[in-house]
Design a protein that fits this description.
Structural class: alpha/beta
Largest sheet: 10 strands, mixed
Number of helices: 10
Strand content: 15-25%
CATH architecture of the largest domain: Alpha-Beta Complex
Order of helices and strands: EHEHEHEEHEEHEHHEHHHE
Shape: globular
CATH topology of the largest domain: Spore Coat Polysaccharide Biosynthesis Protein SpsA, Chain A
Length: 272
């Protein structure tokens, strides 16, 4: 079986109960990672520290403590550098892995050793993962993924596993609010990595009431335009593609929160 590292970043505003549920879903895996790298993105609350102290896994746990909050991209970059295996899996600190997530992904890798970047499908929930509210489906095959990436993130980022070497060659994670994952995938794809997504739901992703509020406004628009510029500079889209994407995506960031939520549910999600 392939050795791999699981990387999770956590910061002070995370809900301790959600973080504990995340870690419990790792313990319930049919195939465990060889090591868990936890990046503490700044000082944590006493409650979160207690969750970590109570963590019981039959694998090595490596803790990377950052003196201050640097946000997700730079925090994940430190975690990738700390990982000791070639394959690195990521997940968010409030999500729930399905018990066979890693088993299914490792089967994919063993079935096609040329793969370097893989993911899967997700179900979204608010309170109970047993009652999902929507699913987000992404394309499966390499060519479909690369075509999809020209317009939208082709991976559900909390399901991704990637090879550490190609990620570092592409420049690793960096500061890029809201788009740190998509940004790295685009750079890796531009370097020619082979991609795939598993057809099954691998992670139950927690959505909060503020999800849509965070995806609108001037700050998000600036990052959106920066992402489109990144797509253009990578050669994935041309000037016409940049203008088309901007014209389609920027106006919806100016919508009221409820209207933006309706757009996401209509075009980017499927109700359960």
């Amino acid at each position: 079986m392939i050795n791999f590292t699981l990387l999770i970043c956590v910061y002070a505003k995370e809900n301790p109960a959600h973080f504990a549920a995340c870690l419990e879903s790792i313990a319930a895996q049919t195939v465990l990672p060889d090591e868990l790298v936890i990046v503490k993105d700044g000082q944590l609350t006493a409650e979160l520290e207690t969750v970590l102290q109570n963590l019981q896994l039959p694998i090595e746990v490596i803790t990377v403590s950052l003196p201050e909050n640097v946000t997700l991209g730079p925090a994940r970059a430190e975690g990738v550098k700390a990982a000791r295996n070639e394959w690195v899996a990521i997940m968010d600190s409030d999500d729930i892995c399905r018990p066979d997530r890693f088993e299914k992904q490792l089967d994919m890798i063993e079935g096609d050793p040329a793969l370097e970047l893989i993911g899967g499908q997700i179900a979204e929930f608010t309170d109970d993962p047993a009652t999902p509210i929507a699913t987000r489906t992404v394309p499966l095959a390499n060519d479909e993924i690369k075509k999809f990436a020209k317009k939208r993130n082709p991976f559900n980022s909390m399901t991704v596993m990637f090879k550490r070497g190609p990620a570092l060659e592409a420049g690793n994670y960096r500061y890029f609010p809201w788009f740190e994952d998509y940004d790295l995938w685009v750079r890796m794809i531009s370097n020619g990595v082979k991609c795939a997504n598993h057809p099954d739901i691998l992670v139950d992703a927690r959505t909060g009431s503020g999800m849509y509020a965070r995806r609108r406004g001037s700050s998000y628009i600036r990052s959106e335009l920066r992402m489109q510029k990144q797509l253009k500079e990578s050669g994935m889209i041309n000037a016409a593609g940049f203008l088309r994407n901007a014209a389609l995506r920027i106006p919806i960031r100016l919508l009221p929160e409820k209207a933006l939520a309706a757009v996401y549910k209509r075009y980017a999600r499927k109700d359960c």
